[in-house]
Amino acid sequence: MENLKGQWVIFFAGIFIVWLVSGCASELIENESLDIDNSLVYCTAKLSNTCKNFEDQHELPRVIHQNEQHWSGSSINSWTSGFYPGLLWLMYNYTGEEQWKQNATYYTELLEPIKRLPWKTHDFGFMMYYSYGLGYDLTQNKKYRAILLETADSLARLYNPEVGAMESWPWMKRKRGWPHTTIIDNMMNLELLFWAAENGGNPNYVNMAIHHARKTQEDFIRPDHSTFHIVVYDSVSPNIIRKETDQGVSAETTWARGHSWATYGFIKAYKYCNEQDFLMTAMDLANYYIQNCPEDLIPYWDFDAPLIPNEPRDASAAAIMASAMLEISSLSNDDEVKQKYYLTALQILSTLSSEEYLSTENDAFLTHSISSKPANSGVNVSLIYTDYYYLEALLKAKQMAAEATFANVH
């Protein structure tokens, strides 16, 4: 790691020169339209700061609290542990610079023990697909593939055929007496099962993932296309015991980040299995988001929070949704649909790239994210997953612009 830090000092100096040449941070902030290339220069400089300042070799960045400059870390067992190596892999893919690859490799391989955690979690996908999955895509390292397949086997053990869905929080049996708990976030972790089935794993994992997505369609989505956070089943059948929330205002409200997870999860499912109704569901959920957001398209932490407009916004929900909408745009065969979601995603990114949301005082890209408002934990802070999806969305938008998907938009 000492050699890496020396390389990062040299690399950061180069980035700083590029930053000065390309325009200072205030110039980026003052630009009302989205300049993707300038935003990527900003992200490169900020992520270079993180590589220089985050010195913990056993934890990974998770949050920058208010009035703090640098990231606080969490252990590899945190559900957020995959996002930092994911950011590094994204940046390596974008720049081709060896420094990004070296750091991405280090923090990815730090997570290997997760493949066989002593406790079970649906978050295997978040933790391992963004680290080992992106790493495998870029390096074709056979060890990474083997670790991903082993992790998928661990995740698949949470599938309950009697319910027809993955169990998200097994510990709720002990904590609250809930026989089988599934949460909306679980849609995002199906990608690991789809990927494994295509890359030498159990082919039945596709059916597990599809069944889970269909149960989510049936039980988590209301007629107006808003979403529940938690559904509790009796574990021996698909019978529902109760619907709940842990992150939202109440069981009957719509937690913003969970709604974004669902949208992204359904479009990812469509990408792998081409089930047309998954695409339609993703679009319905995205439309609910658009119709119920403020004009700048950054949602309040819960769409039904009681003190709107005096409630905090959640940049994490917006960044996830921007990336999901770009995915919808790229996968749809309808030109009108393509343009609608592409332009809406750019509007979200434009707001996130404004003075109000850029983290000019710390090492993160963005601020004004919410970890858990009900727990009063991580309110109006910078979060590693917000930064991940912001960078992911910027890179998608850049690629689509380069392919001249739409005229007169950059």
Describe the structure.
The protein has 15 helices and nine strands. Helix 11 runs antiparallel to helix 12 and helix 12 crosses helix 13 (315-331). The protein is an alpha+beta fold. Residues 1-32 and 406-410 have low confidence and may be disordered. The chain has helices at 2-22, 25-30, 36-53, 83-95, 98-109, 124-139, 142-156, 172-176, 190-198, 205-220, 256-273, 276-292, 315-331, 335-352, 384-402; strands at residues 60-64, 72-74, 159-160, 165-166, 180-183, 230-233, 240-244, 369-372, 377-383. Strand 1 and strand 2 (72-74) form a beta hairpin. A four-stranded antiparallel sheet has the order 2-1-9-8. It has a three-stranded antiparallel sheet with strand order 5-6-7, with no helix packed on it.
| Oligomerization category of the chains in this entry | single chain
Strand content: 5-15%
Structural class, judged by helices and strands? alpha+beta
Radius of gyration: 20 Å
Provide key terms for this protein.
single chain; 410 residues; 3-stranded antiparallel β-sheet; 15 helices; 9 strands; disordered N terminus; disordered C terminus
Task: Give a concise summary.
It is built from 15 helices and nine strands.
How are the SSEs ordered, and which strands pair?
Layout: H1 2-22, H2 25-30, H3 36-53, E1 60-64, E2 72-74, H4 83-95, H5 98-109, H6 124-139, H7 142-156, E3 159-160, E4 165-166, H8 172-176, E5 180-183, H9 190-198, H10 205-220, E6 230-233, E7 240-244, H11 256-273, H12 276-292, H13 315-331, H14 335-352, E8 369-372, E9 377-383, H15 384-402
Antiparallel strand pairs: 1-2, 1-9, 3-4, 5-6, 6-7, 8-9
Helix pairs in contact: 1-3, 3-15, 4-5, 4-6, 4-15, 5-6, 6-7, 6-9, 9-10, 9-11, 10-11, 11-12, 11-13, 12-13, 13-14, 13-15, 14-15
